[in-house]
């Protein structure tokens, strides 16, 4: 039976994108684009892209071939709506088995994705795994390390907070103009409480970009980062 609701996505996420993608999420898209590393790869593998709401079409169109792995049965439809000019994408409605990087690499090679000419992009997936209390983040770390043949990128949250529900627009602008860091996220959050998404150590400090904010909804603010591990 197909699943349409996930702790980290599914119908709820698609609904939020319809409401907020062109206003609240616009700045986050620009901030992400500024932090994506320059690449000469011919092909890209997207893991968990959903509708690709934070990705710019112009950036994706640089690649000769794109393959997207996402178990959400609606992701293909919404992705194609968000990126109508992208004609080189193949969608696979599959979970990626994080316990076996070797199997995943062999699968990509069978699809003509040469590690020397391909990169892998985790699309806001790693930060959502903390929502699943049964998932061991050590498994994610080992999976990432096992993909060292590829250029590997991830954008994800390290922390998030629930914003004061009655914060005025003026107050919110003052908060958001302050330096983007964990301390100021806590200041903006209810009871100064933030959620740790257990991703802070997945990439070494020199492999991470500066932080940027992604207001998922008017009440939910995520502290995002781009991690990049060049192929070895």
Q: Give the topology string: H per helix, E per strand.
A: EEHHEHEHEHEHEHHEEE
Instruction: State the total count of DSSP E strands.
Output: 10
Broad shape: globular
Evaluate the radius of gyration: 17 Å
> What is the average per-residue confidence, as pLDDT, rounded to a whole number?
88
Derived structural class: alpha/beta
Beta-strand level of the residues, as a percent range?
25-35%
What quaternary form is this? single chain
Main sheet, how many strands, which sense, barrel?
Answer: 8 strands, mixed
Outline the low-pLDDT stretches.
none
Helix content: 25-40%
How far apart the termini lie comes to 40 Å
List the total number of helices.
Answer: 8
Describe, in plain words, how this protein is organized in 3D.
The protein has 8 helices and 10 strands. With 232 residues, it is of the alpha/beta class. The strands form 2 sheets. Strands 3, 4, 5, 6, 7, 8, 9 and 10 form an 8-stranded mixed β-sheet that branches. It has a two-stranded antiparallel sheet with strand order 1-2. The longest helix is centred in the first third of the chain and has 10 residues. It is globular.
Quick recap:
The protein is an alpha/beta fold and 232 residues long.
What are the defining features of this structure?
alpha/beta, 8-stranded mixed β-sheet, two-stranded antiparallel ribbon, 8 helices, 29% helix, globular
């Amino acid at each position: 039976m197909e699943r349409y609701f996930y702790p980290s996505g599914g119908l709820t996420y698609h609904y939020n994108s319809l409401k907020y993608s062109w206003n609240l999420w616009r700045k986050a898209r620009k901030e992400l684009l500024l932090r994506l590393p320059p690449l000469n790869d011919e092909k890209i593998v997207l893991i968990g892209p959903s509708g690709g709401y934070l990705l710019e079409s112009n950036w994706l169109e640089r690649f000769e071939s794109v393959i997207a792995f996402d178990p959400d049965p609606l992701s293909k439809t919404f992705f194609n709506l968000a990126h109508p000019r992208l004609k080189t994408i193949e969608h696979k409605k599959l979970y990626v088995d994080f316990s076996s990087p070797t199997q995943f690499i062999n699968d990509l090679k069978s699809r003509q994705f040469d590690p020397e000419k391909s990169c892998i992009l985790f699309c806001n997936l790693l930060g959502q795994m903390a929502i699943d209390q049964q998932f061991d983040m050590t498994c994610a770390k080992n999976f990432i390390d096992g993909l060292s043949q590829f250029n590997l990128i991830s954008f994800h949250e390290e922390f998030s907070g629930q914003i004061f529900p009655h914060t005025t627009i003026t107050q919110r602008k003052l908060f958001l103009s302050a330096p983007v860091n964990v301390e100021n996220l806590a200041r903006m959050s209810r009871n100064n409480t933030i959620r740790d998404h257990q991703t802070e150590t997945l990439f070494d400090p020199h492999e991470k970009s500066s932080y940027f904010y992604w207001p998922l909804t008017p009440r939910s603010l995520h502290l995002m980062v781009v991690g990049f591990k060049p192929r070895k």
